[in-house]
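User: Please predict the structure of the protein below. I'd like the answer in structure-token form so I can feed it into my own downstream comparison script.

Assistant: Understood. Taking the following sequence of 413 residues as input:
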Amino acid sequence: MPPPRTRGTALPAGVSPAKPRVSGKLAELRGPGVPARALDARALAALAANPGCRRRALLDGAGVDKAALAGALGAPSAFGQSQFALTRGNAFEARVKADGGAELLRLVHQRLDPAAEPPERAGSPGLPGPPDLSAAGPEGRAERTALALREATAAGSWTLLDHPMLVLEVAGSPAFLEPDAVVVHPDGGWTVVEIKSFPMLDGSADAAKVGAAARQAAVYVLALERAAARLDPAPRVRHRVLLVCPKDFSNLPTAAAVDVRKQRAVTARQLARLTRVQDIADALPDGTCFSPELPAEELTAAVEAVPAAYAPECLAACELAFHCRARSRAAGAVTALGRAARAELGGLSTVDDVLAAARGEAGDPDDPAVAALRRAARLRAEALAGHRPAGGPGDREALDEALDDGRQGAVCR
């Protein structure tokens, strides 16, 4: 059986003894006695997809429990995995890693490195199994992982590291990340392994799920590259990761190589754009706290003190999405229409501004966005043939209905 999954138990922000002031400030934001939540690869991938959201950067960096916070704000989120899915995933992972990871090493050899010598049967009598990576705390486990990677690279043989602990600095704070596995090849190269419980039917899996897994694996690749850079010479971190899934409708493992170079580049660029958590925290009023135990009014004021960048995509990635959506709609922000619409509308930041520009009541006629809106309004008025004046109250109602239905693209066009 694999060790208990501890993704989400390590911690994010500012726990390094080298930054006691920052650690104390972030602890104050969580509230007295509130433990820090982990900043895992799934959260980092979502954060990288929306680097302009200071609210998420601060809350994740401070280790705030966003699910509890959303509930206290009156906007609970259903975001997250079901217990059934977690149980099924753990059972499948245990099967993949049985016998010391023999089947997993065979899949890595078959899919990623067939020219190398095939791995001996791991877990057989007389053969070493995966190295022991246990240690006290995430920092200790990260050091133990670094030592195991160095020893395995020097040994020049197939080695499976089960649930290693990697470190990646994000917005000035360390994040401890735990991939399902890392494999060291005989040539010294390192490969990230992602084990998922969604099926691979006839050799292909759901594109959206594969994309999410690739973005998550890209975060691990970045962290592994940081670990490799500390060795001399630096081992090669392979940009083709191994995605292991159940085959068809069985519980038998199959695998595919996934190239994550694009996801890695995007994630690295977006994470580099994040404002440092310390800078965001220093800009907050004294006494700001996000403890769910606070009165709703005080908690709402604390959350609103940190700028957010809501987009419909947040609904699938952030526990605070319902709260931020309600605030965005109340303010009439065009971000509720989606990032594509926001980009096309240029300097028009609210729905009222957009409607006023379409009616010719505001906006620079030389602005391409304003000109396009007015032309669209004229064409719509002609099509309706006087059934309803363009830009009238009915337009606002139609816009609100479209927002509720999630048909942002139709509204923009």
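That's the full token string. The chain has a mean pLDDT of 83.
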